[in-house]
Write a structure and sequence with these properties.
By secondary structure, the protein is mainly alpha-helical. It contains six helices and three strands. The chain is globular. The protein starts with 9 loop residues before the first helix and ends with a helix.
Length: 150
């Protein structure tokens, strides 16, 4: 006898399909970027950490990196550990809160981040419609953040 399954509402199917497509797109983006990052032997999360630090005027806390990258704390610690071992970032204590450690690029890390950003941009050139993506993803990210916080 065949299993009886309730009919799935179309809106649920569309939402799940959109989530699957975004997940697939993120995996493909990581793969394409990973090829561009191969000369440095760095992962996509490591590169994104360098690029986030590169875009900041001041060091970041691990919590800030976790929030921006969507990695778990343990995974973020491992990423920062690897970057520090390579001499690309340094950890320093926060001057007002002993519980907090700040992460900053070293000079070599800034050079690597600049080179990696250029390599990834070249690899993705033409594949992304940069005029539409920031608006779409900023809106989607804000909406998902609101739902995640409830």
């Amino acid at each position: 006898m065949a299993a009886v399954t309730p009919e799935v509402p179309p809106v649920e199917v569309e939402a799940i399909e959109a989530a699957r497509a975004l997940s697939s797109c993120a995996a493909l983006l990581s793969r394409v970027a990973g090829r561009a990052l191969a000369p440095w032997g760095m992962s996509w999360p490591q590169a994104m950490s360098l690029l986030l630090l590169r875009a900041r005027d001041e060091p970041a806390t691990a919590t800030q990196l976790v929030d921006q990258l969507g990695l778990g704390r343990t995974a973020m610690t491992a990423v920062v550990d690897r970057l520090q071992r390579r001499g690309w970032v340094r950890r320093t204590p926060h001057d007002r809160d002993r519980r907090v450690t700040l992460v900053a690029l070293t000079e070599e890390g800034r050079r690597i981040a600049d080179d990696a950003a250029l390599a990834v941009a070249r690899a993705l050139d033409g594949a992304l419609d940069r005029s539409q993506l920031p608006i779409l993803f900023d809106s989607l990210t804000a909406q998902l953040n609101r739902q995640a916080d409830t």
